[in-house]
Amino acid sequence: MTTRASLPSVVFAREQDLPWLPIKDTPGFGGLDIPGIDAKYFGKDGRGPWFYLVRHEPGVVVPKHTHAGDVFHYILGGTWRMGGRTFGVGYMQFEQKGLFYGPIESGPEGSLFLAIYDHEPQFIEPEKH
Q: Rounded to two decimals, what is the model's pTM?
């Protein structure tokens, strides 16, 4: 478990200096493999902060899921479709830990967004009954 004392006190990262990684290779997602999703991670491996720039290719579908902590998304480009509604540039989404949401489908232009977690993301799908 990460404690506040183990977190870096100050982190600087310049987006242009960070590589785009497939989500399966992005720290914090435990090898989750959804083709068409790339991210830039602004934190320190295993320590946080859990701050990402994420892009989805057009039509990417993220299945219903939750995370190990609270999450904040802010759409910078493109659109998402979720729950019969379309969300575009300037929309913010916040979910509390344990709330299952989705699926999320990126629009025909894909999407670009900030994702900020209060804990390592740990993508969690609902149990199958």
A: 0.88
